[in-house]
Amino acid sequence: FYFRNKHRPFLLFVSLLHVHTPLITSEKFQGRSRHGLYGDNVEEMDWMVGRLLDVIDKEGLKNTTFIYFASDHGGFLEAHRGNSQLGGWNGIYKGGKGMGGWEGGIRVPGVFRWPGVLPAGTVIDEPTSLMDIYPTVVQLAGGAVPQDRVMDGHTLLPLLRGTEQRSGHEFLFHYCGVFLHAVRWHQKDSGTVWKAHYATPVFQPEASGACFRRGICPCFGDGVTHHDPPLLFNLSQDPSEANPLSADTE
User: Fold this and answer.
1) What is the pLDDT of residues 29-56, one digit of tens each?
2) Domains of the chain
3) Distance between CA atoms of residues 133 and 11, nearest Å
4) Average pLDDT, the chain
5) CB proximity list for 243: less than 8 A, separation 6 or greater
6) Is the pTM higher than 0.90?
């Protein structure tokens, strides 16, 4: 692929099976990590990404290639074998994969590389979306997105280059399947991020932050609690969504 296209624009999309159950890991990486099979899987994924970057560097494409590494959801908390948790960890964020509202299910880091164009070592703490990939790639290719419809994504280039300090997303709507579970409001004048939850999964056990009895949290039905009024959180002060606000407290 690289040899055929290295002298002209190309788009390479790699969707890795890694860090997804059943954690298929080649023999070379089995038992290498101190963190069991999941750690082995992470190390193999890291090696695979490294091989791709090495080829880009070797072919002299490093300074002309825009790279975006991300995930489509947070760690799968319910994945386990016996007493061993196999599905990753979402840090301070509540919930995980399959949860359309809680931060642990939807908030993932993105890593970008484009030497000579994007400033190195920069950390951007702004809410963006994987929907932003499309308009970003279109802009990089010198095209224009269709004007006859509303585009949910925004180009990431101004944010990444530092010409803009705020994400283009004032609102982000978080769905679980076809059901709206939460909405995020990025208040423009203050920079505060608010989150309203209209439905949340029923955790089993309650304090676990996951749905161990079901295997994964559902989007609707008896496994979901509806909130009227919605649960409201100030993510800027409470990123782990531990303290819902009320008229009495806020």
Assistant:
1) 999 998 888 899 999 999 999 999 999 9
2) 2-169 (3.40.720.10)
3) 12
4) 91
5) 233, 249
6) no
